[in-house]
Amino acid sequence: MKVTIERNSLLKSLAHVQSVVERRNTIPILSNVMFEAEGNEVALTATDLDIAIVDRTGANVVDAGSTTIPAHTLFDIVRKLPDGSEVDLTLEDGERLTVKAGRSRFTLACLDREEFPVMNEGDLPHRFAIAAEELKRLIDKARFAISTEETRYYLNGIYLHVADTEDGPRLRAVATDGHRLAQVEQEVPEGASGIPGIIIPRKTVAEVRKLIDEFEGAVEIALSDTKIRFSFNGAVITSKLIDGTFPDYSRVIPKGNDKELQMDCRLMAEAVDRVSTISSDKTRSVKFSLADDLLTLSVNSPDSGTATEELSAAYTADPMDIGFNSRYLLDILAQVEGETVILQLADASAPTVLSDTIDEAALYVLMPMRV
Amino acid sequence: MAETLSDSSVINPVQTQTLIGHEKAERQFLDSFNSDRVHHAWLITGPRGVGKATLAWRIAKFLLTQDTNATADTGLFGETLETDARSLDTDPANPIVQRILSGGHGNIRHICRTENTSTGKLRKDIVIDDIRSLISFFGQTSAESGWRIAIIDAADEMNVSASNAILKLLEEPPAKSIILMLAHSPGKLLPTIISRCRRLHLSPLSLNSVQAVLAGRYPTISNEDLQLLSQLAIGSPGKAITIYEGEGLELYHEVLKLFQSMPAYNIAALHALAGKLGQAKADAKYHLFFEFAIGFIERIIRFNTTQDKQFCFTQGEESLFLQLFANSRVDQWMDLWEKMIERKNRADSVNLDRKQVILNFAASTAQTAKGI
Q1: Which of B199, B229, B198 is nearest to B213 (CA)?
Q2: What biological processes does GO assign it (chain B) (predicted)?
Q3: Does the distance separating the beta carbons of A154 and B143 come in below 8 Å?
Q4: pLDDT over threshold 90, residue A271
Q5: Cα angle value B148/B149/B155 (rounded, 5°)
Q6: What structural domains and CATH numbers belong to chain A?
Q7: CB-CB neighbors (< 8 A) of B95 in chain A
Q8: What are the residue ranges in chain B where pLDDT is below 70?
Q9: CA nearest to A304, candidates A280, A276, A281
Q10: pTM of the full predicted structure?
Q11: Residue of A nearest to B95 (CA)
């Protein structure tokens, strides 16, 4: 194999794939990136056995061939090369790869590409395209609620499915950790109407999200009930899915919450952030006291003191008190696009529904805390 | 605790192609596979070095190379015809096998003791985080089509929380998954784990089988060494290999020399030996020394009570046994045997000075030989 690549395009390609390679790896082949040169491009593949990312970039291929090389080492070398240099990669005897740029020269140990893991995607019968902006919205508004608890592994991802609603079928992304839930929906893209409900693992969500910013245009998604593939313009992520059943989340979204609080989202977020400074415990609870057009936030910590703040808000129902985890609440408020956030409450022990005045297709549920 | 055999770099069960002497266990697995009702959890038990890990990896390679894409043969009425695999052998040139060997196969997870990142040392147990990685492994769809396999090497090294964490998996594994658990001392496992597994016991090998393994591995080994090694290994080829690679034969001759000098042993020579074995880096040799020494006492007793020559491993041992026994009684040697095992275990558990343990051993042996 003999290839010449422009340093910047090689660096960009490596940056796309290397994040999936774990820094500390006991298995040598998993810390490598597979390098395949053919035609006038090279394909770089990296995997952690759960996700595989392939990135293609144009190159001057003198001799076609393939090998695997340590991903982080190569990335660091290319990163430190001067901007605009041409990188020469030559595979010597199957065991050593020579990297040359200007007057620098490196030799790297290679491993046989036969040893490199294969992500066997099988048949991916469902294919559809989704605009990058739309996918970004689905991910951003749901991912903060993904659980990190390993025992309920089926919550460690975003549940993507087509739901039947009053407005007909909608493509819906749901994530929950049992304390909060995020549900985002949008129109069903063409070709997606028959997809099975799938759970996309957290790490895949993070990798896809990173690549959305790097590429323009629509993202093509192909999936079966065991694999999903995201094709960007030049890069492809293939991932395993979570093998489990997502719980029936619709039962935890309350329908009959009759008390409605409306107020400026930014003001609420700032005030919650301020008063929660006092709370020293892990849960960081904040008490909401609601009365006629008045919201009083209070935190009472036996160790460090108390904090209260009064805010004017639109509220006309009966006075009530309710407690929330301030961190969970701030996570949700950060996703609200509109100026005003709407909280629908029932009582101090029932879940609260939060919604956005601009993006009505996004909905959040927050469990209260006893305060 | 003694080093596990699979930790030593000399034996690599993943790479080992052949398994000698466990045809019956392989047959049991194949029968279960051929009947299309493979149990999801297998407990492979047997002494260290007997071939448990090799068997587990052979099963893994076999399962992953089964052609899963081929539609199952169906009979006239749509019933599944019995598949008939006759051997666990796989082709080492198969790309799937190559990926397994390099650790690059996504359908297999190997759980063993991991390094503690804060101290940089190998942990004494398999901890809950190691098992949790299995939960997420089985919680995701498989990377390549076909079986998902976990090998736990060894299950009796799991600590309490790790053992409890695996129960749920053992009870409700996902479809097409198999958990192979190895155990040197299955008695240490939770009864709830044992009851969920099908047991595959690997018995110690015959002398001939051990010799066959050794002869295949070391073509130049002398007949005499081969004989002695296979007798010292007590049916475990893995142990024979570690003895051979770890200069264990030389050590055995030193143990022999020490017994020959009894009861008037050379104190200076003993101090040199004990000092060498007492060092931290001689950990494996220290344990081996006691294994040989305690085994030797055992053979003194057995030979003198049965007069059976199979207890004499090397030339001259017969007269040595008789000579050591001349001034003493069986019960005295049995006392010594029991005391030595107990002392060694106690010294290990509270980390006593190893040199002293060896000096103490020699002194007690000398007394017994004198009949005191």
Answers
A1: B229
A2: DNA-templated DNA replication
A3: no
A4: yes
A5: 150
A6: 2-115 (3.10.150.10), 126-251 (3.10.150.10), 253-366 (3.10.150.10)
A7: 114
A8: 1-10, 67-84
A9: A280
A10: 0.81
A11: A114
